[in-house]
Amino acid sequence: TTINGLGERAGNAAFEELVMALKYIEGVDMGFNTTLFRALSEYVAEASSRILPTWKPIVGGNLFVYESESKASGVLANPETYELFKEKDVGLERKVILGKYSGVSTIIYKLNTLGFKISRKEAEELAEIIRDKAVSLKRALFDSEIIDTYKSYKGRSDKGRSYKSKADKKGGK
After folding, report:
1. Which of 96, 115, 135 is the last residue of a domain?
2. Nearest to 147 by CA among 136, 131, 134, 163
3. The last residue of a domain, from among 47, 69, 96
4. Pair 98, 110: CB distance under 8 Å
5. Into how many domains does the chain fold?
6. What is the DSSP letter of 28?
7. Which residues does the annotated region (Disordered) include (predicted)?
8. 91-143: per-residue pLDDT in tens?
9. 58 three-class SS
10. Can you name the residues that pair with 29 across neighbouring β-strands?
11. Is the domain of 91 the same as that of 128?
12. What is the pTM of this model?
């Protein structure tokens, strides 16, 4: 086996994929510290001057990223709905992003993680704004864009009321 499947010829089994398959599908724990797999894969990618694909099985940066309402809501309610193993098991982090497939529950969750408590009604109104912006940009929104969108929305809907996120109160973004 090789790290990231890199090797002299095509068809090399990726070590990280094999170890996780044995552990979680076959029930064979080989005793490896799998929490270091992401860091190891990044090191090998850098040393070999190759890009670590974001969608790579086991260690790809987007493995635990959710945009669609159904998947994000499902995984937040019960991670085992879509995840065979925990993100921490391979050195990754779960993230919910907002884009054209995001819905009300996802918007409430995401804004809450950014330090804003919003109502279901506000999230319903924001959903269309966020989806339109994501379609226009042809990508999901960055956290700073979500915050700006929310503040702009609040400025229009509450005229003069001031809302501050946890980051704003701490002096950061």
Report:
1. 96
2. 163
3. 96
4. yes
5. 2
6. -
7. 154-173
8. 999 999 999 999 999 999 999 999 999 999 999 999 999 999 999 999 999 99
9. coil
10. none
11. no
12. 0.78
